[in-house]
Design goal:
Shape: rod-shaped
Strand order of the largest sheet: 3-8-5
Helix content: 10-25%
CATH topology of one domain: Immunoglobulin-like
Largest sheet: 3 strands, antiparallel
């Protein structure tokens, strides 16, 4: 960023000089502003939000198969873990996918049981019995241990 010359005492300020000052300030604001598109704000209810440069935020995605042409019963629950490494407990989102397109695969709920800095424990519950092929898509968003 260019440096502006300091005006002499009593020197009149012209439009070009004021324009240079305003342009330089605006450029500086764009580089450090928290509303910049280069900032990711990660918030969890009841906790202080963490603002980090987008290059330091991490989105971890995994597909976990919980039933592969398996016979399931109504009310059956399957627990599974996803391992990772984050500085703070991340935000976890899970969505079941009826990969086998069966009736029992259509009635699956996924619950997040526990989230720590290194593991998410999830539970899938089948509401209908029968044969099912179901995957769970999991997105984990947070600040990795190796950043910040």
């Amino acid at each position: 960023m260019p440096q502006l010359p300091i005006p002499q005492r009593g020197q009149p300020l012209d439009v070009a000089y004021i324009n240079s000052i305003v342009t330089t300030i605006n450029d500086l604001v764009k580089q450090v502003s928290p509303t910049s598109s280069n900032i990711t704000k990660i918030e969890r209810v009841g906790e202080t939000p963490n603002s980090v440069p987008t290059s330091q935020a991490s989105i971890f995605g995994v597909v976990k198969n919980i039933a592969n042409s398996a016979t399931v019963t109504a009310g059956e629950e399957k627990s599974f873990d996803i391992d990772f490494s984050f500085k703070y407990p991340p935000i976890v989102v899970a969505t079941p996918w009826n990969k086998g397109n069966t009736d029992s695969g259509k009635n699956v709920s996924v619950f997040i049981n526990n989230v720590t800095t290194s593991k998410a424990t999830l539970v899938a519950k089948f509401s209908a019995g029968g044969s099912a092929t179901v995957d769970v898509n999991v997105l984990i968003i947070g600040i990795p241990n190796w950043n910040v």
